[in-house]
Task: inverse folding
């Protein structure tokens, strides 16, 4: 079992999460070329070793996380929220105080 | 090479099994080969065999980093079927099944191919309609397929849970000519038959570098020295991207995921077919080996991984799926489980194609289905390497199909590799 330290909920089993995929993909602008879009949608580096990926805490806080993990040992190096500004809002005492 | 036949079995029975030859040589690598196939799994060994047999190329090597048949060849559930419907896929897998039907004779090696029928259960009228569509397409294409109602199913497989299943079984789509085979025998059979035709099988020979001279590969750097090659074929599903990177070719429409399989202790004959079950996101397939063990598998572990070891939640999911349709297995003990690394592609179909490098050919992207494909995979990959012309069955199984918009997506799951189970 992989254990992921969710920044909102603490350390949880990976079975609480769903795997999103490669977090390093940069999508081209909407008027990008067809070749750029084909590359972004269909082609992958398929890293052997440390990679950046997204996980969704589907059976928890339902937040998306950016996880650095090894594809060979499954060791996790870092976990951070995909949307840090959302974390700031959640940490405010009064959520309406934007 | 001593042939396997009744006389030789009898003779060796009398003389204490002392007159058998080695099944294949253990040669030193030559300086240069006409064709080097990287990967000593079923696909690589089959390719080398058909290159020698069908195309009369004699100077061939298969290089394997470990021992032959030690990768995914030994990590699957040995199911063979041809229930595909996309043009190209259908003809390809049907040809593969036809090759399986004669493979033991062809190789003079008993691959224990058993056409015990592949039974794909359905649990709702919508699923029945979808199965009817697929199996009607198969019939129109010349692959015999049947739909069974509950009565036929109960008669043939009495032990399924017809009483109180969470998703009641209402029938099944059936391919009678499908079945399974003994995975090790297939690797050994192709190795032995290829060796007899002069193929050098180089084990413990890991490719560590690919030396390019502009648009050509000059030689491969291996753990057993430099080997020159006129042509090179990659057949290393699971690790394709790593070799692709060594050849400085960039990215591929492939992600590596792991898939687990399970085997139980042996029991008396219980299940005489391959039974498949897929509902509510679960995916499960089970059969009984000749030794009596139940062999089954389920879904991927859902996250990208090169580690050949499985994770616990899938053990639980697969056990639950087993209990859902075969509750009589409740007290059986699991004795082993393992994981293999799959090339999962962006549309769930494979690649047998040329590459941007003139003398490099690619065989990859077998998703869940590489075992049954191995004879045809070797056949058409050898054909491509020898003739340079993609056969019409595999003309769209290339890396350009995505930019052309002609994805071969049997499931219609879209560009997310983990969904093409």
Result:
């Amino acid at each position: 079992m992989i254990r992921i330290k969710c920044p909102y909920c603490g350390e949880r089993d990976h079975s609480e999460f769903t795997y999103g995929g490669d977090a390093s993909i940069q999508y081209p602008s909407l008027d990008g070329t067809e070749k750029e879009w084909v590359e972004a949608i269909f082609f992958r580096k398929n890293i052997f070793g440390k990679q950046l990926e997204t996980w969704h805490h589907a059976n928890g806080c339902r937040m998306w996380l950016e996880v650095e993990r090894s594809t060979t040992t499954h060791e996790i190096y870092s976990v951070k929220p995909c949307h840090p500004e959302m974390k700031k809002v959640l940490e405010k005492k009064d959520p309406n105080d934007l | 090479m001593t042939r396997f036949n009744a006389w030789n079995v009898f003779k060796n029975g009398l003389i204490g099994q002392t007159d058998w030859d080695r099944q294949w040589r253990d040669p030193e690598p030559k300086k240069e080969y006409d064709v080097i196939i990287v990967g000593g799994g079923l696909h690589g060994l089959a390719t080398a065999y058909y290159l020698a047999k069908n195309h009369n190329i004699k100077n061939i090597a298969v290089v394997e980093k470990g021992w032959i048949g030690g990768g995914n060849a030994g990590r699957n559930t040995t199911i063979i079927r041809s229930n595909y419907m996309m043009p190209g896929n259908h003809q390809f897998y049907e040809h593969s099944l036809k090759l399986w039907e004669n493979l033991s004779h062809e190789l003079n090696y008993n691959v224990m191919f058993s056409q015990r029928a592949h039974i794909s259960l359905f649990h709702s009228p919508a699923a029945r309609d979808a199965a009817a569509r697929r199996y009607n397409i198969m019939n129109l294409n010349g692959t015999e397929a049947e739909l069974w109602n509950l009565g036929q199913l109960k008669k043939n497989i009495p032990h399924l849970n017809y009483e109180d299943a969470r998703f009641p079984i209402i029938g099944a789509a059936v391919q009678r000519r499908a079945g399974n085979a003994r995975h090790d025998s297939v690797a050994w059979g192709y190795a032995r038959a290829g060796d007899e035709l002069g193929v050098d099988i180089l084990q413990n020979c890991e490719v560590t570098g690919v030396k390019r001279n502009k648009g050509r590969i000059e030689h491969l750097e291996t753990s057993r020295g430099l080997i020159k090659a006129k042509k090179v074929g990659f057949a290393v599903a699971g690790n394709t991207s790593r070799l692709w990177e060594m050849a400085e070719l960039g990215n591929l429409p492939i992600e590596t995921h792991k898939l687990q399989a399970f085997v139980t202790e042996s029991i008396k004959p219980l299940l005489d077919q391959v039974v498949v079950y897929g509902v509510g996101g679960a995916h499960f397939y089970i059969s009984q080996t000749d030794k009596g063990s139940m062999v089954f598998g389920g879904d991927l572990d859902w996250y990208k991984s090169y580690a050949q070891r499985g994770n616990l939640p899938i053990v639980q999911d697969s056990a639950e799926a087993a209990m859902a349709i075969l509750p009589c297995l409740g007290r059986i003990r699991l004795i082993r489980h393992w994981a293999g690394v799959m090339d999962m592609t962006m549309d769930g179909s494979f690649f047998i194609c040329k590459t941007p490098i003139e003398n490099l050919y690619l065989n990859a992207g077998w998703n869940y289905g590489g075992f049954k494909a191995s004879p045809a995979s070797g056949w058409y990959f050898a054909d491509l390497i020898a003739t340079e012309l993609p056969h019409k069955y595999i003309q769209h199984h290339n890396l350009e199909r995505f930019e052309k918009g002609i994805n071969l997506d049997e499931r219609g799951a879209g560009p997310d590799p983990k969904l093409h189970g």
Observations:
- Chain B touches chain A at residues 239, 241-242, 250-256, 302-307, 311-313, 346, 402-403, 415-418 (CB under 8 Å).
